[in-house]
Each structure stands twice: as C-alpha cells, then as structure tokens.
Amino acid sequence: QARLVESGGGLVQPGGSLRLSCAGSGFAFALFTMSWYRQAPGKERELVTNIRSVGNTYYVDSVKGRFSISRDNAKNTLYLQMNSLKPEDTAVYYCNARLTADLDYWGKGTLVTVSS
Fold this sequence. Notes:
Blueprint: E1 3-7, E2 10-12, E3 18-25, E4 33-39, E5 46-51, E6 57-59, E7 67-72, E8 77-82, E9 91-98, E10 104-106, E11 110-114
Parallel strand pairs: 2-11
Antiparallel strand pairs: 1-3, 3-8, 4-5, 4-9, 5-6, 7-8, 9-10, 9-11
C-alpha cells in the first residue's frame, strides 16, 4: 500500500528557512514524478514544484530562487528547502507522487506558518 508522510513544517519568522521531507513507501519511488503542492486558507491547492524521475524540475514563479526541490531515491525521500520565507508562503504543504492517473498518491500534509 502506497504511503507518503510529510514532516518538517512549523512556525518560522519571515525571512527564515524550513526544510520539508516526504518519506514514501509501498511504491517504486524512483519512477514517479514527485511534487509539492500547497493550500493556503481559503485558496485552492496549487502546484509549487516538482521533480521528474530523470531530475527535471519545475517551480511556480512565486518561489523561484527561494525554494529548492530534491529527491533521494535510495532513501525514498523527497525534500523541499524553503528559504527567504514570506507570510504568503503560509499553507499546508502536500507531497504527491504520480506515475499515471491511477498511480497518484498524496500525503496528509504539513503546516507551514510564516509569521512574526
């Protein structure tokens, strides 16, 4: 059974940094496109960044230059390094693993709050 577990969220001051992790199990992690989504209060869930199995990455404009996605296939773990955090980055961050429409898995999310 596929499972994704996020960790690393918390409260941080503006300008600070956090590193999120997502541990995967029960599926062929290395083959999947891995993504981070976020959902802010009252807003729709949005794609923040993803990394394909071959290493290609995508970032939404609002986080370019501040966030960095990486993966360790040996550890079945996805990471999101978030620097220069802003209050507008406050959201629940979700990990997603997708290979096909039928092989599409979600974690339960981790809350990131950026506030002074």
